[in-house]
Amino acid sequence: MNRLLVPLAAVLLAAVAGCSNTSSVGANGGVAGAAARGTAEDPSTVVATIGDKKITLGDLDKSIRGKLSTLEREHRQKLHELRQGSLEGMVAKQLMEAEAKKRGMSEEDMLRAEVEGKTAAPSDEEIRAFYDQNAGAPGLPPFDQAKERIGQFLTAQKQQKAVMDFLDKLKTDAKVEITLAEPEAPAVHVEAIGPSRGAKDAPVTIVEFSDFECPFCSRANATLTQVEEAYAGKVRVVFRDYPLPFHASAQKAAEAGHCADEQGKFWELHDKMFGNQRALGVDELKGYAKELGLDSAKFDACLDGGKMAEKVSANAEAGEEAGVTGTPAFFINGKLLSGALPFDEFKKVIDAELAKAGVKTAEN
């Protein structure tokens, strides 16, 4: 198969789905393995002594529990991806061998007939369209120089699709069923404290760590509204702050939210700030509070005096301990979802949590 297909080059740059505070924590087998071994060790083991004071492994792990949780999550996902890729390869190999034997021909001849014989060469229009779509890319040569390589690349894409279509047909004919389970994300204990919406006894609690200046948080806010509407009475949403240091207005915006909460207007100001992310200076925040009918003198004094700064810092620290590295971050009954993800990603986790609790969804 490999001799028929030109290796595909990576041509697309993945879009980041959230505002990042740090680079993601790298994980490989050694690091993740060390993290896993650490959780199995005795937390009372003394790892350092300062005079008569001892630091235990439990103390140490508590200080990095967010990073350990991230490593464990990444390790489970990487292990699943490795198993999944190997399983797909094993299935494909067996199907190909069986089909070639049934046809009385070699696998290479079979693939040549299925791929090369059914793949049209890219037209000049297709090549030109691909070139135009990538115009402005660094190092892109003139069209005449790039034309042949683009043609090879598009041919490889078509061949790759033909192979996958052929494999899909073989899987369907053989009634292949993949039952390898997705890894279950480890639950992280996150206190559900702060402004909230939804029933307090809801079977699912979503703790959101967010930044009013982060555009991805604004995008996720619309999705969260969709979640609340779809799961009315079954989901409670709790808001916690995670202002990123490179967002100049995020800290004061977070404080403003708590100042508004003192007067029972958190969610009103919450929506106002997300709707005006380019205007979150102190004067603008005070103006929004006035528009919403808050006691301006009380709100202004709260904001100017930094009354809520400690509360914001405590929320951010809790986020770091839980493994938050960027915004938005959502803990659904302790299961982390990071970034401005679509509704279906929330739905998968919420439905699984409702099933655990024996609560029916709208679909069952």
TrEMBL record:
Ranges of residues in domain Thioredoxin: 157-355
Keywords: Disulfide bond, Oxidoreductase, Redox-active center, Signal
SUPFAM superfamilies the UniProt entry points to: Thioredoxin-like (SSF52833), Triger factor/SurA peptide-binding domain-like (SSF109998)
InterPro entries found in the cross-reference section: Thioredoxin-like_fold, Thioredoxin-like_sf, Thioredoxin_domain, Trigger_fact/SurA_dom_sf
Gene Ontology molecular function: oxidoreductase activity
Residues spanning the signal sequence: 1-27
One Pfam match: Thioredoxin_4
Domain of life the protein comes from: Bacteria
Family: Belongs to the thioredoxin family. DsbA subfamily.
Protein's name in the database: Periplasmic thiol:disulfide interchange protein DsbA
Organism of derivation: Vulgatibacter incomptus
